[in-house]
Structure formats: structure tokens, C-alpha cells
Design brief:
This protein is an alpha+beta fold and 887 residues long. The chain folds into four domains: 148 residues, Galactose-binding lectin (Jelly Rolls, Sandwich), CATH 2.60.120; 195 residues, Jelly Rolls (Sandwich), CATH 2.60.120; 155 residues, Immunoglobulin-like (Sandwich), CATH 2.60.40.10; 280 residues, TIM Barrel.
Length: 887
């Protein structure tokens, strides 16, 4: 590490102008907390003194207007006497805040000021800016020589291009390039797109080229205007949604510069779609392994005049071009650029990984068994910040559920030594006065971590559901998740079982107690819809690999996706609707009927939820026809009737023709006109909107819209309950579905029921971008692909299932109240709980927090209190309703 620090210092140590604070006169400082002047030779890099910042302390420095002629760098010399990374919070007030890490000993914290200036070039800042420097670490750190620096001058004749969208953050010294660029010209044969991936840095995190997809090729003309030249190309190789392509190639003037092909086995590994899964996530690994998978740097000679650059599944992120006569200066410039990028990566992108260690001292028995087991508080379940405490060791794991429903449980296990294998399993559950439940009723998952990079720190979130974990470190916190499926005919009572945790050759047992309430058959949850906003196509998991698969294999894998989803309560999906072809707008049904013919849908069962046939593509094909004309009605009428006929042919039972989203009055009025045509053609229409948008619509217009709709999708928000009541006032059999992209227990459970919805739709089954990339983790993936051509569930799937169980419980209790009233039984206690849930739901919509993977306004402990109260009061009523026991 010492050599690394020395090299970094040697590269960046030359004196620079633009010092704005050298900490020579502390009387003029604006400190926060207790700061101290230091004079040691190790700490001071310029002048006679530097400033020591204890943890939490800081200082504010003013940057004068126009301090830089060109947007460049903020640099701060640092000295950390302890052998730890120091952390400084840099806040350019009103512009940008970044947390950066510096190495032990001497280092330089270097922040590109373009992060604050954006695409602005020329003098900066336009007016004075306060810079707050705060020690966000755990040890004191010394800072000195706070200065601004112009961009490093490029060699004469050099062209520096940073590709990306308009307004992008430019790397210091580079100029913006997109559709047009100095010395480069796109072929003009297809549209050029620019994208912002967000990592690894402002230079390489933006790019331009043809839209990433399958087998994309583009030719770029590169001009060397002053004789023979040298060029460096930084090329990204992305396919759909930043996934890796099966193959990528770069050629210059017919000579291959870069070629790589990934076969199916490589695509289903860390070299392909699984990049980042189970990998170290250290700064060294990130720089040497992770970044090169997405970006390649190519150095090549240019001939005088035009050069032909061919890109296959590649895009341009940055280019440096210069005359070959300046090759030594160009190489020095690129070497320093690489050093700047590497330093930026280790300081601001990925500086360290954070792993939690349990400090609870094991008992003699636990030491002999090889592990400690903890039952964390409900609000800490599956938290990546949970550290066990002794009190959690004695807490029993108690669960409760209705018969025919499910219950989620959590255990934290801490090995006392490193183990090669950790696996959980369930023992049968026994009851005192009823038949027991087989061990198969309980599935025990070990949670493998997903990586979440937050403020340059890699954190590890328990997320992927596995049957076992391997290579588990001593004193690390490992999570087990229990999913109990209570048989429909299970009797009311208390069931006792255990979870067995295998650690290599030893086993520990954790007792589990399950309280079951069996409802009368007439108080079942009834029909409801829980869907995903996706067709279930395996393309969303495999991207380019799916395109290369034979159609029967792709259909088989897509059916497997739906099977895995159905196991966690999903009973509806989106279905790709028909399109219109030709000038006469004839319906083309292949896109709709092919999945139905191949069995890739969930709408064929009697208890299926309401699937949504998307009409977006067909309606887009009618843009040249004016809405409200006879021709528009005729075309849409024919489309609807043909769709209804095909749905009947393939036994698609419960569905609606989905208009799409409309969140303004004009859009809702247009949706209403389309819905009326669909209704008149004997179709069932649906639209996605919000309660706020509907309230803004005139009452008469809203009434007309509601009369035309079969189902209404509402995004979460306050005040939904009244709008749902209005929609169902004249037609109680119409469906209202909540649309909430994150699989949150509260959202899909008590909130969904509390606002009067008949179910809910989540986002797609897979992450929009890779679930294994720590910069993109969003916690919403229900499934992830495996190397064995299967799909394994995630913690999100269990949370969705628990939410559905809560929804069913509230519905059962609602029906139970109606039954009890008919027998003139007092239902006040149960109704009080249900009313509390309704009032909370109407006032408190879910707000998902990524750091907790849940809504924080209504905590898990409160959800559990509602479950306990509902089951307790329901049990009392059931005993009065059926003296001889439930049917």
C-alpha cells in the first residue's frame, strides 16, 4: 500500500496555483466542531501549518466567483496517521455533495468540478460558492492546501471528446460529443443515441452510438487532419439495458482491434449476465475486473485523412486523437488521465466494502455447536445493518397465519468459526389437539447477499434465496428465511416445530411456534388479482441470449418464469396485445396469440387474476387517424372484436384491454373515448392513473370515464379510498387494482386492502438492469436467472407473498364480520382493527426506502400487531359462529 500511495503522490504532487485555503491563519476560518492547527512535516504540504479535523468536525471555505478560467479540479492534500481509510464529505453548497476516501499517510483528494458545473465550460463559478469539508470518518484527518486547478493541458493538436447526452458531466479538459464531434462522423445510416449509465465515472459512464440491442453495427469515420495520427478509443460494449452482448468487435481500417464472444455458459456466469454476483467488490477488483467488462481502452495508429472505425455491439465513451509527431506527449497525457480515473474510482466510486461482524460472546454450548442463532426484532428483519445483540438470542421465533395462507419468518445465524457449508431445513410441525404439518410445508432459504454501492461503500444486502451458502466467514451475520405454507385444512391451534441449521458436520436447532386460525369456508379471500407488469418473457432475464434461443426453448423458459412467480401468489400478468398493419390498419394477432398458443400466460385458470392485454402498440398505429371519427371507431372496433375472439379461442378468461397510463385531464378524456369504443365492441377496458388525476377531472367527465371502464389501475397515494368507492358505486363487480412497482409487504397487503383495491400489480419479475450490479440494485427483482437455466426467487418474492397473505387475512376478516352480523354477534373488536387499517391506508401511502427494502412509515412491527389482533378477534368470532368447529 505504501508504494501505491507513493506513486499516486508522485503523479500528482507538483505544485499548482489557485490555492484558496492553506490554513495559515485559523482566525479567519469558519469551523464546525473543534478543529486544531498542526505543524508536523508529515501533515503540512504547503506553508507552515495544516488543519486537523476530528470525526464530525469540518470547515467552510469560500470559492470566489470566476476562480477558474476552465472547469477543472478541486484538490485537497490529506494526511491520515492511522492505517485506515479516511472519509471526507465535500459539499459545494447548492451544487453537489460527494463523499470521498483517502489512503493512510499522504494522499490527494481530487474532485472533478464538472460534477458541480455540469456541461458548463469556461470561467467557473459564476458567483461565490461555499465549500464545506467535513470529516465523515471515525479517526482524525489532516487537510491542507485546498486549491483549484485548471484541466491538464492537452498536447498541441490533440482532440479530446467525451460522448454522452446533452448536459452531461464533462471530464475536465474534454469537449462534449454526441451526434456531431470534431474529427469524427457517424455513418448516418441509423439514429444515434446517447446514454448515461452512471458509472464508473463521468468520462466513461456516458456514451453514444446506435441503441444497444442485438447485433448492432455502426461505422464511424475518424479524421487525422495533420498527417498520421494516434488515437485512443474508450468503447463500451452494451446490449439491451446495459447487459453484455453475445459478441462485440472493433475494427479500424479492416484490422481487428477487439473481439470477444460469450457462449451460453459464459453468459450465465460472472463473465456475462452475472457480473458482480459473489465477487469481492474491493477497489482493486473493481478496477482490474469489473470496469474492463464494460469498457475497453484501445490505442491505435491512424493514417492521414479518413479512417474507418467499425463498431459491432460497441459504443463510444471517449476519444483522444492527436498527431503522431506528438506521440510521447500524448502517451504521457493518457497515462495521467488513466491515473486520474483510477484515483477517482478508489476515492468516489468504490473505496471499500463494509461487512458486519457479530461481537456477542458465544456460550460454551454455542462454541461446541459452532454457531449462534438470533431472532431479531421485526423491524430489523433482513436488514443489512443489523448486528446481533445478546437479547435477541433468547427471543423465540413466533409466527401466525390463517389456514390456507402463509407466514414469513427470519433467523440470523452467526458461525463461531469459518464453515464450508451452511444450510437450513425444517422439522415437522406438531400440534397438541390437531394433526401436524409436514416438514415440506416450511421452506428454509439461506439468503445470499446482493451488493449495494452507496456513497463509495459496498454494502451487502441479504436478498437472493438459496438452498445453501458456501465459504461462510466466522462471526459474519447470515440470514435464514422461513416461508410456511399452512394447509387449507389445518385446524386452529398452536403448532411447534424447529429449523435445523447445518454447519459442515454440526447441527443446531431453533424452535419455531406457529399459531393457526382456520376460517369458515364462506369467509375465504375470494377472487383477487396480483400481477406483474410483464409478459413473463425470459428475455427480461437473458436479454441478447434470449434472442439467440430457438422459439420453443424461449417459450419453455418463459413458462418456467410464470411457474416460479405463481409459487409466490402471482396470478396475472401483462399480455402483449395485437398490432395494426398496412395502410388499411388490419389487426395482426400474432404478437397476442403466440404466447397464448404456447401457454405463456396465467389467465387460463378459474381462479386466475385479471391479466392486462396492452393496446399501446395498436393505439400508436392509429395516430394517423383522428380520434372521434368514424374511421377510428371502425378500426378499433375490428381490433377489439378480433382480440376478444382470440382470447376466447385460447381460453383466456379474466382479462381487460389496457389503454395505458393517463395522468392529466386531457389524457383521461382521451382514454374515456377509447374505453367507450372498447365497451361498445363488447370488450373490457382498463386505464392506469392516480386518484389525484381523477379528482382534477370534472365530475361529469369522471362519471363517463368510470362507466366505460371495466377495471381501474391506481398508483399509490393518499385519498384513494374515496375514489375507489366512487368507481364501484354503481358497479361493485368492477375491479380496482393498485399499481406499485416495489414488492412491499405493506403496499401489497394491508394498504391494498385498506384502500379498497381488488389486488395489485408489481413491476416486472426481473430487475430492469442487472440485480448483481451494486450500482443499480433496486430491491424489486422477484426472480434472478441461475447458471442452470432456472430462476431462483429473492427476498422480494417472499415479501410479495407475505403481502398477499396479509391482504387475504383482511378480506377473510371482512367477510367474517358480515357473517357474524347476520347472527347478531358483536363484531366491534374485529371491526376496530379493520377500521384502523383503513384509516391508516387512506392517510399513509407506501413510500419505499431502498436502505430498508420496505416502507418505513408503517413498520413491520405494526403490521405484525395488526395480524395478531385480526387473528385473535377472528378466532373468537369463529368459535361463536361454529360451536362444532369450522367446516
Amino acid at each position: 500500500m505504501g508504494l501505491f500511495v507513493f506513486l499516486g503522490w508522485a503523479l500528482a504532487a507538483p505544485a499548482e496555483g489557485g490555492v484558496i485555503e492553506g490554513f495559515e491563519d485559523l482566525s479567519k476560518l469558519r469551523p464546525t466542531g473543534k478543529v486544531a492547527r498542526v505543524t508536523g512535516a508529515d501533515a503540512v504540504t504547503q506553508g507552515r501549518s495544516a488543519l486537523e479535523l476530528p470525526p464530525g468536525a469540518g470547515v467552510t471555505v469560500k470559492i470566489p466567483a470566476g476562480a477558474l478560467k476552465q472547469v477543472g479540479w478541486l484538490r485537497i492534500d490529506t494526511f491520515e496517521p492511522q492505517p485506515v481509510l479516511a472519509c471526507l464529505e465535500l459539499d459545494l453548497v447548492g451544487h453537489v455533495s460527494r463523499r470521498g476516501y483517502v489512503l493512510p499517510g499522504r494522499d490527494i483528494l481530487a474532485l472533478p468540478l464538472s460534477l458541480a458545473a455540469g456541461s458548463r465550460r469556461g470561467p467557473w463559478p459564476a458567483k461565490p460558492v461555499d465549500l464545506r469539508i467535513t470529516n465523515a470518518g471515525q479517526q482524525p484527518v489532516v487537510v491542507d492546501n485546498v486549491r483549484l486547478a485548471e484541466p491538464r493541458p492537452a498536447p498541441p493538436g490533440a482532440v479530446l471528446l467525451d460522448f454522452g447526452p446533452p448536459g452531461q458531466v464533462l471530464w475536465p479538459g474534454f469537449e462534449h460529443a454526441e451526434l456531431e464531434a470534431r474529427n469524427l462522423a457517424w455513418s448516418g445510416e441509423a439514429r444515434i443515441f446517447s446514454h448515461h449509465a452512471g458509472w464508473p465515472d463521468p468520462l466513461l459512464g456516458d456514451f453514444a452510438g446506435k441503441n444497444p440491442s442485438y447485433k448492432v453495427q455502426e461505422t464511424v469515420t475518424v479524421r487525422s487532419e495533420k498527417g498520421m495520427g494516434l488515437a485512443w478509443f474508450w468503447v463500451t460494449h452494451y446490449s439491451y439495458m446495459y447487459s453484455p452482448p453475445l459478441e462485440y468487435v472493433v475494427r479500424l481500417n479492416g484490422r481487428c482491434l477487439l473481439r470477444r464472444r460469450l457462449g451460453p455458459s459464459a453468459m450465465l456466469s460472472t463473465e456475462g449476465l452475472f457480473s458482480g454476483r459473489g465477487e469481492p467488490w474491493t477497489p482493486e477488483w473493481f478496477q482490474k475486473t469489473f470496469v474492463p467488462r464494460a469498457v475497453s481502452r484501445l490505442e491505435c495508429a491512424l493514417k492521414s485523412g479518413n479512417n474507418r472505425l467499425e463498431l459491432a455491439n460497441c459504443q463510444l465513451a471517449a476519444v483522444v486523437i492527436g498527431p503522431r509527431a506528438r506521440q510521447q506527449a500524448l502517451r504521457r497525457y493518457v497515462a495521467r488521465l488513466d491515473a486520474d480515473l483510477k484515483r477517482y474510482h478508489r476515492q468516489f466510486v468504490l473505496a471499500r466494502r463494509e461487512t458486519l461482524r457479530c461481537e456477542v460472546v458465544p456460550t460454551d454450548q454455542e462454541t461446541k455447536q459452532g454457531a449462534m442463532a438470533f431472532v431479531p426484532p421485526r423491524d430489523e428483519w433482513f436488514s443489512r445493518s443489523y448486528v446481533p445483540v445478546p437479547e435477541d438470542r433468547s427471543r423465540p421465533l413466533k409466527l401466525l397465519a390463517a389456514a390456507g395462507s402463509g407466514a414469513l419468518g427470519a433467523l440470523a445465524v452467526v458461525p463461531c468459526r469459518q464453515v464450508r457449508l451452511l444450510r437450513g431445513s425444517a422439522e415437522p410441525f406438531r400440534a397438541v389437539e390437531a394433526a401436524g404439518m409436514a416438514a415440506e410445508s416450511c421452506t428454509v432459504y439461506a439468503l445470499a447477499p446482493a451488493v449495494v454501492v452507496r456513497r463509495a461503500v459496498a454494502e451487502f444486502q441479504p436478498f437472493f434465496l438459496a438452498r445453501e451458502l458456501r465459504g461462510v466467514e466466522a462471526r459474519s451475520v447470515q440470514w435464514l428465511a422461513l416461508w410456511l405454507r399452512v394447509p387449507r385444512k389445518a385446524r386452529s391451534g398452536t403448532y411447534r416445530g424447529a429449523v435445523r441449521v447445518l454447519l459442515d458436520q454440526t447441527t443446531i436447532k431453533v424452535p419455531v411456534e406457529l399459531e393457526v386460525v382456520r376460517f369458515v369456508e364462506s369467509a375465504g379471500p375470494g377472487a383477487r388479482s396480483f400481477g406483474v407488469a410483464s409478459t413473463g418473457d425470459c428475455f427480461d432475464a437473458y436479454r441478447s441470449l434470449a434472442v439467440a434461443l430457438p422459439a420453443p426453448r424461449r417459450a419453455q423458459l418463459s413458462r418456467l418464469v410464470l411457474k416460479r412467480l405463481a409459487a409466490f401468489g402471482v396470478n396475472a400478468t401483462y399480455l402483449a396485445g395485437p398490432v395494426l398493419t398496412g395502410r388499411d390498419h388490419r389487426p395482426s394477432m400474432g404478437r397476442f396469440t403466440t404466447p397464448l398458443r404456447n401457454g405463456v400466460f396465467l389467465g387460463g385458470e378459474a381462479r386466475s387474476g385479471k391479466s392486462l392485454v396492452t393496446l399501446g402498440a395498436a393505439l400508436a398505429g392509429m395516430r394517423d387517424i383522428q380520434l372521434g371519427t368514424k374511421r377510428y371507431r371502425e378500426v378499433l372496433d375490428a381490433l377489439v372484436k378480433e382480440t376478444v375472439r382470440a382470447a376466447g379461442q385460447y381460453r383466456l378468461r379474466n382479462y381487460a384491454l389496457h389503454y395505458g397510463g393517463a395522468f392529466r385531464a386531457s389524457g383521461l378524456e382521451q382514454a374515456g373515448k377509447v374505453a367507450r369504443i372498447i365497451r361498445d365492441a363488447k370488450g373490457r377496458a382498463s386505464v392506469l392513473t392516480s386518484a389525484a388525476a381523477l379528482k382534477a377531472l370534472a365530475a361529469e367527465k369522471r362519471r363517463e370515464l368510470f362507466q366505460s371502464l371495466d377495471s381501474l389501475l391506481l398508483v399509490s397515494g393518499s385519498g384513494m379510498l374515496g375514489m375507489v368507492d366512487e368507481f364501484k358505486r354503481d358497479a361493485p363487480n368492477k375491479a380496482v387494482l393498485l399499481w406499485y412497482s416495489k414488492p412491499d409487504v405493506y403496499a401489497f397487503g394491508f394498504y391494498c386492502w385498506g384502500v379498497g383495491a381488488d389486488g395489485a400489480y408489481a413491476g416486472g419479475p426481473f430487475a430492469p438492469r442487472s440485480a448483481f450490479n451494486g450500482f443499480w440494485f433496486g430491491g424489486r427483482a422477484l426472480l434472478v436467472p441461475t447458471s442452470k437455466w432456472d430462476f431462483e426467487p429473492t427476498l422480494a418474492a417472499l415479501k410479495l407473498a407475505q403481502g398477499i397473505a396479509d391482504y387475504d387475512l383482511a378480506r377473510r376478516c371482512e367477510k367474517l364480520v358480515a357473517l357474524a352480523r347476520k347472527q347478531k354477534l358483536s363484531t366491534d373488536a374485529l371491526e376496530k382493527v379493520l377500521t384502523e387499517i383503513r384509516l391508516t391506508a387512506d392517510k399513509t401511502p407506501p413510500r419505499y426506502r431502498l436502505e430498508r427494502l420496505r416502507t418505513t412509515e408503517v413498520a413491520p412491527a405494526r403490521l405484525q400487531a395488526w395480524r395478531e389482533a385480526l387473528l385473535r378477534e377472528a378466532g373468537k368470532l369463529i368459535a361463536q359462529l361454529a360451536p362444532k368447529g369450522p367446516a
